Amino acid sequence: MCINYSIWRFDIKLMPAIHFDPFASLVQTTGTGGAETPMRWYFSFAGGLAFRF
Q1: In terms of Cα–Cα distance, which of 35, 38, 37, 36 is closest to 22?
Q2: Across the strands, what pairs with 13?
Q3: What distance in Å separates the CA atoms of residue 11 and residue 44, rounded to the nearest whole number?
Q4: Does the pTM exceed 0.85?
Q5: Residue 48 has pLDDT above 70, yes or no
Q6: What mean pLDDT, rounded, does the chain reach?
Q7: Tens digits of residue pLDDT in 11-35
Q8: Are 1 and 44 within 8 A, CB to CB?
């Protein structure tokens, strides 16, 4: 989903996203030999400014 807001020839863009990793259930090891609990869901947020000419 992308949210756009226009002011004259400028666009302000806000782009939140949710990601799912189906392979995160595989056990990952750290450098010390311990096991970590992997994350399956990720959230990212991006923004931008555009000029239309």
Answers
A1: 38
A2: 4, 48
A3: 20
A4: no
A5: yes
A6: 81
A7: 999 999 988 887 766 655 555 655 5
A8: no
Helix H, strand E, coil C: the string for 4-36 is EEEECCEEEEEEEEEEECCCCCCCEECCCCCEE
Q: Which residue has the tokens 């949710």?
A: 18
φ, ψ (nearest 5 deg) of residue 9: -105, 10
Q: Which two tokens stand for residue 5?
A: 């807001």
The partner residues of 15 in beta bridges, in order of sequence, read 46
Per the listing, tokens 């970590």 go with 36
Asked whether the predicted pLDDT for residue 6 surpasses 60, the reply is yes
Which residues make Cβ contacts (< 8 Å) with residue 53, sequence separation at least 6? Answer: 9
Are the CB atoms for 10 and 25 separated by under 8 Å?
Answer: no
